[in-house]
Structure formats: structure tokens, C-alpha cells
Amino acid sequence: MIFSILTLSITCLGLLGLIAFITGQRQKEISIRKVMGARAGQIAPLLFGNFILLVCISCLIAFPVAALFMNKWLKLFFYNPGLKIEPFLFSAIAVLLITSFTVAFHTAKAAIANPIHGLRTE
Fold this sequence. Notes:
This protein has about 120 residues and is an all-alpha fold. It has one domain (about 1-120). About 80% of the residues lie in helices and about 0% in strands. The chain is built from 5 helices and no strands. It has helices spanning about 1-25, 25-35, 40-75, 85-110, 115-120. Helix 1 runs parallel beside helix 4 and helix 3 packs antiparallel against helix 4 (about 85-110).
């Protein structure tokens, strides 16, 4: 249980770092869009779409591999409870929620920021 919590914490920190990095790289684009009159609601889909797609692709890759290994491991037990789809669905929902909250936080932070700071070098 402790190692699972540690693994999830490290994963969330990596996701937070990736989102912060990509948002920082796209700060000029966001600033230009704000100067041209875009609202936060128009900027949010630019960042949400990329990360939700990445999370969905990672789930599509990870779930069959995890199911294969879990199925082999469960065959070792005499009373095999079987492999159900609920843990996979719950983990996918949890990952999507964590990603959505993190992207929403960084999108709001970038949308509220003054565009002058993003275009300072131009």
C-alpha cells in the first residue's frame, strides 16, 4: 500500500511537471491569443485536448499489458477471483480527473497572467 501511494505520488508529480513545462513553452502562443481577444474558455481546449489524448493513449497501452500480467499472476492461486474491468475503469477515471484538475489549474494560471509578461522578449 505504501509503495502504491509512493508510485502514484511520483506519477502525479511527473504529470504536474510535464503540464507546467508545456504550458510554459506555449506561454507566448497563449499571450498572443489573449492580445487578439481570446478568453480563457477559448484557450483551455488548446491544452486540454493534448493531455486528454495522451492519457487515453497511455491507458490503451497500459491496460492490456497490466491485464496480461495480472491474469498470469492470478492463475497461480487455487481460488482465482478472476480479473474484472472495474479496477481499470476506476484507474482511468482517476487519471483523467487528476489530469483535468492539473491542466485546469495551469490553464487558468496562464489565462489570468498578463500577456505582457509572455511577450516581453518580442
